[in-house]
Design goal:
The chain is mostly helical and 127 residues long. It contains five helices and two strands; from the N terminus they run βαβαααα. It has one domain: Orthogonal Bundle (Peroxidase, domain 2). The radius of gyration is 15 Å and the shape is globular. InterPro entries: Haem_peroxidase (IPR002016), Haem_peroxidase_sf (IPR010255), Peroxidase_pln (IPR000823).
Length: 127
C-alpha cells in the first residue's frame, strides 16, 4: 500500500476532499507544513468552487518520481491518508527509504502495476 500511494506523485484533487485538514474546528491540521497549508488555503478558501483542484504533488506535479515521499517527510501530504504513511511507525521507514531512493520506489511500484495490478480510472472505484 505504501508503494501504491506513490501514485499520488501525479494527479490532482478537488478541494472538498481535504478541506477538513484546513478548516476544522481546531484549525489547520498540525501535521501539515505551515507554508504548504497557507498555499493550499489560497487555492482552496472556504466554500470554494467545487471544480477547483490542487496538485497532489506540489513539487513535481507532472513527473512520476519519488518526490511524493520527500513531500510527506516535509509535511506536504495533501490527504490525511498520505500524511499517516510518514507519521505511522509501521510505514515511516519505508517512506524514508522511498524518499531517499527513487529506484527502490520504482521497483516496488512496478510490481503493483504490472500484470498483477490495476490502475484505476477513478481511485474510489474498481474498473
Amino acid at each position: 500500500m505504501i508503494a501504491l500511494s506513490g501514485a499520488h506523485t501525479i494527479g490532482a484533487s478537488h478541494c472538498n476532499r481535504f478541506a477538513d485538514r484546513l478548516f476544522s474546528s481546531s484549525g489547520v491540521d498540525p501535521s501539515l507544513n505551515r507554508a504548504y497549508a497557507e498555499q493550499i488555503k489560497q487555492a482552496c478558501p472556504r466554500n470554494v468552487d467545487p471544480n477547483v483542484v490542487v496538485q497532489l504533488d506540489p513539487t513535481t506535479p507532472n513527473t512520476f518520481d519519488n518526490v511524493y515521499y520527500q513531500n510527506l517527510i516535509d509535511g506536504k501530504g495533501l490527504f490525511k491518508s498520505d500524511e499517516i504513511l510518514f507519521t505511522s511507525s509501521a510505514s515511516k521507514s519505508t517512506v524514508v527509504e522511498f524518499a531517499n531512493n527513487g529506484g527502490e520506489f520504482n521497483a516496488a511500484f512496478g510490481v503493483k502495476t504490472g500484470r498483477a495490478g490495476e490502475i484505476r480510472r477513478d481511485c474510489s472505484a474498481f474498473n
